[in-house]
Amino acid sequence: MFLNCLGMCCSKLTTNTNSSQRRFPTLIEELCHQYSLTDIRKATNNFDQKRVIGNGLFSKVYKGCLQHDGASDYTVAIKRFDNQGREAFNNEIELLCQLRHPRCVSLIGFCNHQNEKILVYEYMSNGSLDKHLQDGELSWKKRLEICIGVARGLHYLHTGAKRSIFHCILGPSTILLDDHMEPKLAGFGVSVQGSRFMPKQKQISVDRVLGTWGYTTTDYVMDGTITAKWDVFSFGFLLLEVVCRGMFYLISLTEKECLENPVEEGLDPIIKGKIAPDCWQVFVDMMVTCLNYEPDERPTIGEEEVQLEHALSMQEQADITNSNSEYTLLSKTIISLGVKQFDTEKIL
């Protein structure tokens, strides 16, 4: 089985723990509400398993109701970390307190009671993107709109704050959808905060394993450095998964099939015949460049955002003039997934 087609998360984390420990909890308490453990237990019916709506590597997420902005029955998502998730808790709360963007999930509060490390987020009623891709229920235009929203969120992380932030585990499971099916980035437990923003961002070296197989760049695997181009590669793989028949299809492919089969053969049946050829060409060109083996050859996420908006415009225009018939894609797109042979001992 080809590892770069797998969605198996690695188990070690890298966070700016020294910064978190130095500033937590005084600054954090000023920026978001602190709930008591009693409040959290009441909100989750004492962590009732029937309230579980998600599972992370070191956490469980519960649906609950808490007081917020004067409302006593405000629906929230409550993430409870286990003992191995303390670094992720510190990292996530520090980063989310800095983020203010409609395409990033909002942190409402936290609970830091002895061994209990808990974060409270806005509730995203439509869950994660991976479930919708597996169900095959999203139209082509909605998939494009979701990708545009994700690109906007990443663009903000890379350039919109005082320090660049690299998400590092971008994928359908860390993209949540609200009441209106608008995407928001989540899962910042292993995200890395870079230097103050500069036109050319510096590389960050890490000494622990990060990321998700398939979404992890080989440049990181080889030398342990992270730049914004890490997220760009992950975004390219996300584009591939959005049009293919989900991760279940991708992990079923052998290495040869991953490298040689045209993308068009693996299109989700629900979007076959719905994609305008001009729109598709722009879309696959973006995929190819994002998945380039050489980081410097990948575009910025801002450039991807602009190209996606152009692709959506082309699709809408084509639908106006060709509303009564299906589209035929004549191209055959081969994507190498940015893979070259490398010494697996360096990975392990």
UniProtKB/TrEMBL annotation:
The keyword RNA-binding does not apply. GO terms for molecular function: ATP binding; transmembrane receptor protein tyrosine kinase activity. Residues 47-313 form the Protein kinase domain. ATP binds at K79. Keywords: ATP-binding, Nucleotide-binding. Gene3D superfamilies: Phosphorylase Kinase, domain 1 (3.30.200.20), Transferase(Phosphotransferase) domain 1 (1.10.510.10). GO terms for cellular component: plasma membrane; plasmodesma. InterPro entries: ANXUR1/2-like, Kinase-like_dom_sf, Prot_kinase_dom, Protein_kinase_ATP_BS, Ser-Thr/Tyr_kinase_cat_dom. PROSITE patterns: PROTEIN_KINASE_ATP (PS00107), PROTEIN_KINASE_DOM (PS50011). PANTHER family: OS07G0166700 PROTEIN, TYROSINE KINASE FAMILY PROTEIN. This is Protein kinase domain-containing protein. It comes from Phaseolus vulgaris (Kidney bean). The lineage of its organism: Eukaryota, Viridiplantae, Streptophyta, Embryophyta, Tracheophyta.
